[in-house]
Amino acid sequence: MKRIRVLIVDDSATIRRLLATVLSRDEDIEVVGGAPDAATARQMIKDLTPDVITLDVEMPNMNGIDFLEKIMRLRPMPVVMVSTLTQRGAEVTLSALEIGAVDYFAKPTENVAAHLEDCARDLCEKVRTAAGARVRAYVRREPPVISTKPDFDPGNTVVAIGSSTGGVEALIEVLSHFPKNCPATVITQHMPPHFTTSFADRLNRLCQPTVTEARDGAVLAPGQIYLAPGGDAHLEVHGVGALRCRLVQEPAVNGHRPSVDVLFNSVAATVRHNAVGVILTGMGRDGASGLLAMRKNGASTIGQDEASSVVYGMPRVAYEIGAVERQFALQQIGQEVLNVCELRSKKAGRHAASI
């Protein structure tokens, strides 16, 4: 079986050696070279034709973001960004994911050599996933067309969304369709601390509704979108009457904390038929069983289709086990969610009028 050829681009010789050592231990991966800057990397890409690039966010002369944009515009290929677990690292990495990087690896800021060993499996898995990801040429996009629906009735529906690899672009696309008075929406996107803080701020700037990191006890309300904070807690929905966010400090589920399955299962048990579940691009199977529980309890469920997914992992498993009621291309999902919510609201109104 053909090994995955990886080019490491990082201005630190120490980090290049560490990454090469870690990646070379995986029998599926071959490190074909290391470059200290964009100019060297450009020539090595031509000469070595790697399958995947790991790219440092901060580099001299041309930073990682500018170089990534050139790669994705002129020669699209899978890129895993290497950043730090800091606020600055998070903001720059989110820009890279919007441009087209498949994923990111957050390197520790202290005692790098020791902690990198602990993260070795995660890094190798991200490289393997990137090698099979769908990458598209980068086209500088106009700001998303913000939805304005003054007559939209969100009713009592709660929307629950789960995503992972490729989810940054996917969530921006879906939520750009949501009007200011959108249904109360809860989201779990696999991310570490700092990253979800920056991502919630970014979504809040790009979308009409208010987007915040979920706080324990926050009341779910129309026009509000709650993003599970990265780190040591899962996001759940609980309550009778007034539904609230609950942050639960429990072990990782499916290797993730926060976990999409934990969120979806809580919505299935609490909201039941007054919910819409959406599973977007991502690696693995997190969210599939929770989405099935939602569907069995009467919720409408939507999955992203294979053609528009960066990684058709989570949506595929959910579809195969019968958790997905309907599949759509990413560009259609936001509007479909609103259509389902309006239909449910109208049915609830007719039912109340007939009593």
Describe the protein in words.
Keywords: Chemotaxis, Cytoplasm, Hydrolase, Phosphoprotein. Residues 5-122 form the Response regulatory domain. It comes from Rhizomicrobium electricum. This protein has helices spanning 13-24, 38-48, 64-74, 87-99, 112-118, 120-131, 167-175, 195-206, 260-270, 288-296, 314-320, 330-354, and strands spanning 4-9, 29-35, 52-56, 79-84, 103-107, 158-163, 184-189, 210-213, 224-227, 234-238, 244-248, 275-279, 300-304, 326-328. It is built from 12 helices and 14 strands. It has 2 domains: 4-131, Response regulator (Rossmann fold, 3-Layer(aba) Sandwich), CATH 3.40.50; 158-354, Rossmann fold (3-Layer(aba) Sandwich), CATH 3.40.50. Strands 8-9-7-6-12-13-14 form a 7-stranded parallel β-sheet, with helices on both faces. It has 355 residues and is of the alpha/beta class. Helix 10 (288-296) packs across helix 11. The longest helix is centred in the C-terminal third of the chain and has 25 residues, at 330-354.
Q: How does the SSE layout of this entry go?
A:
Elements: E1 4-9, H1 13-24, E2 29-35, H2 38-48, E3 52-56, H3 64-74, E4 79-84, H4 87-99, E5 103-107, H5 112-118, H6 120-131, E6 158-163, H7 167-175, E7 184-189, H8 195-206, E8 210-213, E9 224-227, E10 234-238, E11 244-248, H9 260-270, E12 275-279, H10 288-296, E13 300-304, H11 314-320, E14 326-328, H12 330-354
Parallel strand pairs: 1-2, 1-3, 3-4, 4-5, 6-7, 6-12, 7-9, 8-9, 12-13, 13-14
Antiparallel strand pairs: 10-11
Keywords: Chemotaxis, Cytoplasm, Hydrolase, Phosphoprotein
Family: Belongs to the CheB family.
Subcellular location: Cytoplasm
